[in-house]
Design a protein that fits this description.
The chain has 15 helices and 2 strands. By secondary structure, it is an all-alpha fold. It has one domain: MetI-like fold (Orthogonal Bundle). α6 packs parallel to α10, α6 packs across α13 and α8 packs antiparallel against α9.
Amino acid sequence: MDSISAQSSPIAKLIPDELEAPPLTLRQLAWRRFRRHKLAVFGGITLILLVIYSFGGSLFVSEKYANYTDTTIRLSAPSSEHPFGTDTVGRDCLARTIYGGQISILIGLAAVTIETLLGILVGALAGYYGGLIDNILMRITEAMLNIPELFLLIVMAKNFGGKIPNITFLGREFSGSVIVIIVIIGLTSWMYLARIVRAEFLSITENDFILAARATGTSNFQIIFQHILPNSIAPIVVSATLGVANAILSEAYVSFLGLGVQPPTATWGNMLDQANNYLESAPWLWFFPGSLILLIVLSINFLGDGLRDALDPRSRAV
């Protein structure tokens, strides 16, 4: 009788697989947290669509067409033939936003690569070795933080922007100012990441597994890059993601002032500069590139917020 009642109880009816389900891995937990962040999912989808628009659009529209001028149709309003209208010299704005988006995104990615490498190097050395090295590197970092980044970017872009000739890469001709903007943004935006990495290294260095690695004779290089850095990757990924948006905005700032990427290379930023005198008479000149900048910056920020929550090891939300 007891065996029959035990078999009919709710506990006995539970599926064994549910009771013995394996625990989720860190990657599965991170993905589950990320999916619950609706704005992050929206940002990720929007970012993918913008990348497809910028790089996939070149399969249907040639760069020659994007740079083709026809003054007979200058400042034409959006139409079926020119969905985004034409600019002051008759170039198709839709085609210009496609190729301008490529440069804006590439500038963001390349600048963040420089920023991330410098930030990791400075932060890792300061946090791991401490002492005199930490003091010197952090004083340099604080000195850089006290210099207005945008002001420094404008001054350096003005002084070096026109001194590098055009370059050809992957069959495309780029203004030499692209390299200048990438290097300047990368060299003036690593400080916050360096402080984040330093804090992570200071925290992880005192853990038992690091002390054990030192006791077994593991080299400092291996400890830094094989033990500590992989455990600090979450804040680095988040910072790098948000850094792409900041780099795109910084390029748009200086290009809007006429000191950024120079023609014939198009970016969303210098398209806004060309629309400066036609804000009311030809609003499509600023509306479309401005909307694309807004969308990509918002999507990257939403994505960064979602990654921060998903990769936070202290998060308990599943």
